[in-house]
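Sorry to interrupt, but I need a hand with the structure work. Can you supply me with one protein entry, sequence and fold together? No commentary is needed, just the two lines. Leave the record below and I will have a look.
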Amino acid sequence: MLKKLTSIATSNDPLMNWAKAIIILLALIPVIIFMSNATTSQDWSWFKTGFDERPNRIIIYHDGQKVELRAGQPGFNGLAEAIRASLAGGVAQQSNTGLSDQSRQEAYIRYTTVEAFFDRPVKLHAFFYTDHPTQMLFPITGRHSDWPIVFLGNDGEYRVNAPVLKTIEPIREQLTAMRIIE
């Protein structure tokens, strides 16, 4: 068997050369795709789902009211786990959407929005660049709430190209259980 493979590999037959070229090309395509995504996302684990971080502070904005939750307060553990579960479900696509100052103010004042803060930079794996945010904003009602989008940011600023998650239903379910939304 080894002798036969060696003779094929060293053959000068033009037909065998084409076959070898095709095999090499087919072997390189997955490597090229992986490296292209790893380079653009700056994440060697871009293909992974899962998210194990929990926020250390959560703010719920609802109809002009602001409720801040920290560890140990009622509702914090359930909502923190819902945020983690939504992020762990993975990213469906990139949105090419940003959050303007006006949209953010409306999210805080007019609509229901959940803002999560982490005590250190975290990584959300995706096939595009998501940086290492310390805060995330989830629109639940109002502008941008028609898809499960999460805006990622640092130091009070949110970046464009927000990821669209596969689901934010765990967050919606927890907010319903907390009687914030129906």
